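chain below, 413 aa
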Amino acid sequence: MKLSKQVIRELPKTDLHLHLDGSLRIGTLLELAREKKIELPSDSEAGMLELVFKERYDNLTEYLKGFQYTVAVLQDPESLERVSFELMEDNIREGVRYIEVRFAPHLHIRPGLEFKDVLLAVNRGLQRAVDHYNHSVAAIRDGEEPPFAYGIIVCALRKFEPVYSDYYRQLYEIHQFSTQKEVFQMAAIELARAAVRVRDEFGIPVVGFDLAGDEMGYPAIDFKPAYDFVHRNFMKKTVHAGEAYGPESIFQAITELHADRIGHGNYLFATDMIRSNDILDKQDYVERLSQYIADRRITIEVCLSSNMQTIPTLHRIADHSFGQMIDNRLSCTLCTDNRLVSRTSVSRELELAIKHFPFTVHQLKDMLVYGFKRSFFFGPYTRKRRYVRQNIDYLETVLVRHQIVDDDLPLED
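prediction:
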């Protein structure tokens, strides 16, 4: 039996690497920009896709330029709540049962809009969408399908410029005698403290802490104090690593920042990107690292479309290191990264993976289940176990209903 788009839509899915400010509906971006009198490179969807949200980029730096426009329209609680609701709704409509939305709250702080206000606005939008669909879908109410759920991940930035936000301008002024790196580290520590406080005081599902931005010149170890703080306060951790730097960045994220998951990790096996002269046998290094990741079940948040856009040397999806990850039996889950900027969805990422890599039904089930098992689900572990079991049972139901039982997994044309 071939796997159709309809079956893919029905399968219970997750998106554990999903940036809020990179996943707006393009129509919403244009509408908000008009309301707030923010000038965009184009006032049409076609123009924005041609000039900003392109199919390919020269590098990650160019890819990130589009965020200046999306962040600009998200400077008030109403807009944050709206795009959060729409993002949850977009995922629900394609059968994504659980998402973890990540963003850098400091980019939205300004006079009258504090850290907690930003988190509360995002949470309101996500919760409103979840409540609506969980209550309106009869199969969920009757217990025949698992409910929709979400978590929030806050992102520290490896680097930023004072013009990014009022918060960063103030930080530079207060610490004007500190080095740039010291300012970045202070911002991360403040974010860590604020995230734990908001989670504990308001009960907002802030489930994880992340580090995003340019890896080159801004190693993970610089942010160890912030990660140590969230680690001591029982918050889960993920790190953008191996996205634009080599295996050493991934090693550092795991050993120094206690990373439970790795964002991207596409250069895990890239021996040619190892910089340290102390590593004499590079092949042995990546083999040991990959086996350590496999043994610890550290999950890699794979973003195929995003990596294809930002890595000029990656010409075919089939050449992505995801194939090696599968061969090494690593715990992987497919993610979108940015639904707008990468012009994608979870269903599309799944279609790309099945089309370009030799998947079996067993491997498909494993990958989908990893997303639920390795999520940073908010609340007691017993509740998470029940939720994971609900989705596993529903996954089996969908596959049996559509007679997807063969060992090979061809896509329907």
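The mean pLDDT is 93. The chain has one domain: 5-401.
thats it, cya
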